[in-house]
Backbone:
């Protein structure tokens, strides 16, 4: 009897070894049956039943849960905008001045505001006296100056030509131009013997002396005196800054007169126009303003702003 018991034990060991070799690396049949059994409906564990362990969470799911979920309503535009302090003079209408409320206004200020909007930046404006604009910029009191500063021209003295300041491209040009009375028939092409009013000591007088040697120049102490000479008939023509003449002829004082002839834009006399000034270390920001200005010209924004201050383009 004992012999039969030993023989049964040996048979069980042999069968178990064979099954182990057959299912090596694979779940045993009774384990598969247990895995395939449908899970019972979820119920609250009773006092005597231990809760079943939850299914293991995959590594990918763990990583996904640790990452912040994307917010489709948040865009880069929601980030805090850049802020710039822009300096201007506030005493050179219509380019920059203080309106009836005391706020800074004018062509310079409105154009700079449009550039800042294009750059999605918030800009504030502060006034400085003319002589303090560039020193204030250099000392960090502002990020840029937009105050009808002329872009330096080689060979002409300028406080901005010291290597510490860089300019955008011209945002308006500053050529010379003739004005004549509306009632007259004077041409700007036949100038021999004509009486031409100019401001004494100005680049306009110097240009007229070199370019119109056969004309008769009448030099006056201020542009206003030269303009009065034309309106009173003391002069046949007035030669001066085109932008100043546009302002004058659009007002009551200059209603007598109109602009005639072409623009004279020799940079040696009239410069390269007005630019926005930056510290030399902010050349990248200068380039951003240049790009924004070009976009405003291309989409018509510049022309719409200019038309509110001038009767013709000054670009």
Residues:
């Amino acid at each position: 009897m004992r012999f039969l018991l030993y023989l049964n034990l040996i048979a069980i060991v042999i069968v178990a070894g064979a099954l182990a070799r057959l299912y090596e690396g694979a779940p045993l049949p009774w384990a598969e049956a247990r895995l395939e059994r449908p899970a019972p409906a979820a119920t609250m564990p009773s006092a005597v039943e231990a809760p079943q362990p939850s299914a293991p969470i995959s590594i990918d799911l763990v990583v996904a849960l640790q990452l912040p979920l994307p917010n489709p309503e948040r865009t880069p535009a929601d980030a805090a905008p850049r802020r710039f302090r822009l300096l201007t003079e506030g005493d050179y209408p219509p380019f920059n001045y203080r309106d009836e409320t005391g706020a800074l206004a004018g062509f310079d200020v409105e154009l700079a505001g449009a550039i800042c909007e294009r750059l999605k930046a918030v800009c504030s404006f502060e006034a400085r006296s003319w002589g303090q604009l560039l020193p204030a910029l250099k000392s960090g009191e502002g990020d840029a100056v937009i105050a009808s500063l002329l872009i330096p021209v080689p060979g002409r003295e300028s406080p901005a030509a010291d290597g510490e300041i860089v300019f955008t491209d011209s945002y308006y040009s500053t050529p010379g131009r003739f004005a004549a009375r509306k009632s007259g028939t004077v041409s700007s092409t036949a100038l021999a013997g004509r009486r031409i009013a100019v401001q004494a000591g100005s680049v306009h007088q110097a240009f007229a002396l070199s370019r119109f040697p056969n004309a008769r120049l009448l030099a006056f102490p201020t542009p206003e005196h030269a303009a009065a000479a034309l309106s009173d008939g003391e002069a046949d023509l007035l030669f001066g800054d085109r932008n100043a003449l546009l302002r004058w002829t659009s007002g009551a004082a200059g209603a007598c007169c109109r602009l005639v002839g072409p623009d004279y834009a020799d940079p040696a006399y009239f410069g390269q126009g007005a630019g926005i000034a930056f510290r030399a270390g902010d050349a990248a920001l200068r380039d951003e303003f240049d790009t924004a200005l070009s976009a405003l010209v291309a989409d018509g924004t510049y022309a719409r702003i200019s038309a509110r201050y001038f009767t013709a383009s000054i670009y």
Summary: Residues 28-51, 57-67 have pLDDT under 50 and may be disordered.
